[in-house]
Amino acid sequence: MIYLRRDSSETKRKILTVCVRLFLEQGYKNTSVSQIVDEAGVARGSYLNLFPTKDRILLELTETMFGGQFGVARSIADSKLPPVYAYAVETAIQLTLTELNENLREIYIEAYSLPDTSEYIYLHTTAELKQIFGENFPDDTESDFYEMEIGTAGLMRSYMARKCDIHFPLERKLSRFLTAAMRVYRVPEAEQAKVLAFIQSLDIKAIATEVMYKLFAMLEMKYDFKLSKDSKGEETI
Fold first, then answer.
1. Are 63 and 112 in contact (CB under 8 A)?
2. CA angle 94, 100, 103 (to 5 degrees)
C-alpha cells in the first residue's frame, strides 16, 4: 500500500511537470493527452486515473496562479489607500498579463470558462470582494457577493478574450472594465475617477511583466522544469 501511494504521487508529479510546461510553452488547447503521457513517460491508464480530464490539471495550475494575486496587488497599492485600489491593481494586472503572453491569455480564458476552475475563482474571490466592498452592501451575505462575482468574472473573461489593438488600447480596456466593475460594487463616481487616475499613473505593463516572470519562476521551481526562452516572450501592447 505504501509503495502504491508513492508510485501514484511520483506519477502525478511527472504529469503536472509536463502539463504546466506544455500549457505555458504551446498553449492549453494544443496540448494533447497523447503528448502528455509520452513526455511524462507514464501509462495512459495511470494518467486517466489521476486526471480524468485536462480540466483537472488546469485546476491545479489555476489554484497556484490565483493564490497570491491579491497579496501582490496590496504590495503595489499603498496600504493607506481604500481597498478598492488593491482590487483595481489586481484586475489590471490580470488583464495586462493576457496581453503580454498568448498562452497565458488562453490559460486565463479557459480558467474563467470551465466549471471547476471558474467555481474555484468565484469562491476564492468572493471573500476578498466582501472584505473590499462590504461597506457598500451592509446587508449582503457572501452568497450575494458570490453572485455578483459571477457577473464581474464574466466581464473579465470577455475583456481578456478581446485582444488590444490600435482601436482598443490597453489603457482603454482597463478603464472600461474597471468602470463597469466598480459600478457593480457601488463605488461612488468621484472615487471611481480617483482609482482610474491611480491606475493610469502606474506603469502597469512593467508591473505585469515583473509579475509574469515571478509567476514563471515560481511554476518552474514548484513543478521542477525549465521553460524555453521563446515561451517567456512579451507581446507588444
1. no
2. 85
The Cα–Cα gap between 93 and 72 comes to 10
Q: What is the pTM of this model?
A: 0.90
pLDDT attached to residue 161 = 97
Q: How far is CA 135 from CA 83, 130, 132, 157, in A?
A: 11, 8, 8, 26
C-alpha distances in Å from residue 183, one per residue of 44, 129, 132, 155? 48, 14, 14, 12
Set of cell numbers at residue 190 = 468621484
Q: How many Cβ atoms from other residues are within 10 Å of residue 15's Cβ?
A: 22
pLDDT of 79 reads 73
- Paired strand residues for 56: none
Residue 130 exposure: Cα atoms within 13 Å on the Cβ side: 16
> Burial level of 93, CB count in 10 A (0-12/13-18/19+)?
buried
Kindly state the cell numbers that stand for 155: 466581464
Residues 6 or more apart in contact with residue 41 via CB below 8 angstroms: 14
> What is the structure's pLDDT at 3?
37
Confidence of residue 2 (pLDDT cuts 50, 70, 90): very low
